[in-house]
């Protein structure tokens, strides 16, 4: 893919300032850009890089006035960061634009595949499964019997969707993630062994969800584990059976949500957080990395931290004093002694 | 799968009370059940749902007397919850009853596959490997050279069993789990680099073990990493080389057990727990989620919590005071001042 | 594989003491060894096992004098542990010496495969990808378009390398690990939803790196996430976009490194550690398991622990007092009372 400054200007509705015929074939940060790269300058604190960069084209604000000589061709636009984001997205859309069915792949005769889909080699589409239009199902992916996938989804290599799960449209799932494995439910027996409780529910993932690599979302015992619209999950996350993650909630890597817990909308949850089962977390809650949430959060929109968690400000204070505990104990002993001596 | 109330009654050895010809094709919770669903009522506190439910059949206790009108056909049995569990299991057994060898799959000429096995497409069975009777090996699963798998096992899609590992009977492993990867052993060198210590042992998994999705169990350096009979492991768990997990021990998601540690029988270990290497944990220990176990636990049957861990009751008390540390420090300062002023 | 004591003696440049024709076909610890096993005695505290072992051959120090009768044939060498390590490595090299291209596999016509490579069944090598000489690419592995892999690499079953990633030579990656999944980058929108920031960078893994099972390393937004030479990563580790892990650094299982953080050379990082984004960790830092690193570490070569972390010795002291907090509070209350009473 190679573009001239002129083509970039037309694409971004911007003005070209410099050689309109210079070409670029990659996108790069201004401090790392080489010849043939296109970069951007949005934050004035990076301006000095503009006078040193080898980038062939730099996107700048429409009113930007350089204070020194610039070698790159400038493309002037209203919002350089947004303009650059558009280019990033176009770049990836072109780059990852796979279509067609590679062989060998396994599509059960009773499965239905939408138009313009990509089915990679060694992908498996089970009996009665439905895959919507424009989906990209990368190699070695598994879509179990009667699973349903909407339109415009991308499942990277090795994603596993168990039978009966339902995935919305524009859902992206990264390599190795597992959707619909059995919930962890066992009934203790008199002899110390455990009997498995069959897990016959499913997982429902609504539209516009993105899930990172090697995460696992268990199916419900009965009913559904539900990931609501717009949720973003990072890598290596555990969502247990019958949990529900609210609309537009974002969860960072290695966090675990236990069985039947309900996380509200618009929450922001850090990495390595643990959330116990059968609780609810209020809308807009922000939970710091490595926290342990062991009871329901009722108040909306608050910040929390610690194990067991409390308000963010309280934790910050307590943690500071924790580090001074040896001092505190020493003072207490001195006081005891002083009191004994003097009284 | 469609059943009449009469068929359900015969299956569960129960009495049909209402229309015996009404049919059901799914199982559901009583509060969520629609027409065509079979549900159950075991706990009296859910009785009101019985008078509102759209379920076509509800299993109830043999002596249950409704206090209001019921639309559903009732099936009366001794223990409604157990009866329903039996149906859940039968449902899943029928649903997941796959048999036969899908193509393309790879079975080495020297491998042996038992009777009535299911080998999914893109599964790989290596040289000298043995797979027992009635096993279900889902698509994209890997069973390495000379690995042995007993009877009645289910490996969901993408399970990876390395060479020489030995798996018992009735073992269930969920998608993406890895059995037999190299232990993490490296010898530091004078120049700061590390030399790999070859890991030539294996993993032994005994009968009736269940392992969740995306967990990893490393092979021993020499000898075996051992998962004893009846152990249940959740998702994203790490078991390091030469560890041993005792009979009927249950471990929740995202917990890690370090190298050469031995966990006793009948332990219950929460999620995100870390257990250091070369220690032992006594039989029947219960360890709270997110704990850090940094030394052996000698006493059997106790509850533990915290990082580093101590007795559960001690931790609970200390954690409460931790949250009051700012108060505690203020009091101490006031005391200091008071003492100075007054003496 | 079967070897005589004489062959072992020649291989290790050692002297055979006993029957030179006895044969061995496996390696074992001296306390577990049976007939046909080769073992070693390096640590004098295990000497008593030598007089009980069923091992057929035991490697001992060149000057070792037994104090009792020995049944095994001895092979005397300068350094028994090193000699045994060499045998371990040879054993594995012979055992895992796969070569050739199994079918069905998918190698794009524009991909280049080096000489003497092993490509397992159901492996996928994308358009423009390069795989070096002597690589072992196990079944169900994915190497995306234009990815580059050096010589002598081993990727175990189900490894996923996304497009454009660059892997050095002698790199080992265990089953299920994902290299190059999208960084977790989303721009919040006015309506509460998030827009994906396209991730067009890649992952660079230098020579001699080993990565465990089911780990994930995200590609950079732009530029590269970099794993430097000689790094060893355990299982279930998360490395976020644009992070950099310094030369010869070792990280234990289930640890997470957040976006854009730079870990120095020769660090030793325990399991389940969390490291926040946009910080740097100095060369030679040692970080205890389950720590939370929430700011940069500037001093080189120090030990750290705790969440939030502080110096190892300070944490150890504070943690001891934490467990005594109920006592401390009681004392404080007594002091308060005493002061009130007496003054």
Automatic annotation (TrEMBL), chains A, B, C:
Annotated catalysed reactions: a UDP-3-O-[(3R)-3-hydroxyacyl]-alpha-D-glucosamine + a (3R)-hydroxyacyl-[ACP] = a UDP-2-N,3-O-bis[(3R)-3-hydroxyacyl]-alpha-D-glucosamine + holo-[ACP] + H(+)
Gene3D superfamilies: Hexapeptide repeat proteins (2.160.10.10), MurE/MurF, N-terminal domain (3.40.1390.10)
One GO-annotated biological process of the protein: lipid A biosynthetic process
Sequence ranges assigned to domain UDP-3-O-[3-hydroxymyristoyl] glucosamine N-acyltransferase non-repeat region in this UniProt record: 21-89
EC number: 2.3.1.191
CC terms in the record's Gene Ontology section: membrane
An example molecular function term from Gene Ontology annotations: UDP-3-O-[(3R)-3-hydroxyacyl]-glucosamine N-acyltransferase activity
Catalytic residues, chain numbering: 241
Transmembrane stretches, start-end: none
Keyword Lipid metabolism found: yes
Keyword Lipid biosynthesis annotated: yes
The protein's enzyme class: transferase
InterPro entries membership: Hexapep, LpxD, Trimer_LpxA-like_sf, UDP_GlcNAc_AcTrfase_non-rep
NCBIfam families linked: lipid_A_lpxD (TIGR01853), PRK00892.1 (NF002060)
Sequence similarity: Belongs to the transferase hexapeptide repeat family. LpxD subfamily.
Assembly and binders: Homotrimer.
Known function: Catalyzes the N-acylation of UDP-3-O-acylglucosamine using 3-hydroxyacyl-ACP as the acyl donor. Is involved in the biosynthesis of lipid A, a phosphorylated glycolipid that anchors the lipopolysaccharide to the outer membrane of the cell.
PANTHER family in the record: UDP-3-O-ACYLGLUCOSAMINE N-ACYLTRANSFERASE (PTHR43378), UDP-3-O-ACYLGLUCOSAMINE N-ACYLTRANSFERASE 1, MITOCHONDRIAL-RELATED (PTHR43378:SF2)
Name of the protein: UDP-3-O-acylglucosamine N-acyltransferase
């Amino acid at each position: 893919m190679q573009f001239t400054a002129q083509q970039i200007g037309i694409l971004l509705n911007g003005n070209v300032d410099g050689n309109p015929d210079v070409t670029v074939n990659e996108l790069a940060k201004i401090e790392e850009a080489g010849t043939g790269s296109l970069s951007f300058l949005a934050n004035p604190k990076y301006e000095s890089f503009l006078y040193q960069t080898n980038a062939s084209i730099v996107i700048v604000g429409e009113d930007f006035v350089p204070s020194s000589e610039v070698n790159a061709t400038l493309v002037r636009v209203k919002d350089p960061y947004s303009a650059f984001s558009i280019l990033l997205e176009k770049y990836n859309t072109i780059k990852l634009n796979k279509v067609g069915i590679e062989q060998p792949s396994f599509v059960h005769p009773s499965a239905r595949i939408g138009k313009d889909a990509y089915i990679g080699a060694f992908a498996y589409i089970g009996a009665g499964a439905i895959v919507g239009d424009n989906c990209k199902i990368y190699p070695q992916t598994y879509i179990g019997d009667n699973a349903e996938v909407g339109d415009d989804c991308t499942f990277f290599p090795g994603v596993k969707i168990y039978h009966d799960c339902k995935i919305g449209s524009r859902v992206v799932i990264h390599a190795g993630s597992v959707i619909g494995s059995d919930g962890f439910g066992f009934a203790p027996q008199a002899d110390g062994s455990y009997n498995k409780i069959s897990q016959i529910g499913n997982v429902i993932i609504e539209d516009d969800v993105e899930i990172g690599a090697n995460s696992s979302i268990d199916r419900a015992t009965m009913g559904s584990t539900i990931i609501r619209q717009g949720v973003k999950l990072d890598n290596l996350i555990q969502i247990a059976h019958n949990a529900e993650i609210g609309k537009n909630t974002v969860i960072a890597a290695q966090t675990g949500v236990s069985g039947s817990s309900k996380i509200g909308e618009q929450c922001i949850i850090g990495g390595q957080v643990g959330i116990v089962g059968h609780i609810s977390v209020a809308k807009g809650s922000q939970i710091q990395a490595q926290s342990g949430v062991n009871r329901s959060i009722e108040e909306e929109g608050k910040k929390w931290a610690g194990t067991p968690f409390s308000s963010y400000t309280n934790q910050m204070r307590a943690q500071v004093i924790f580090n001074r505990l040896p001092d505190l104990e020493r003072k207490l002993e001195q006081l005891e002694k002083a009191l004994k001596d003097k009284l």
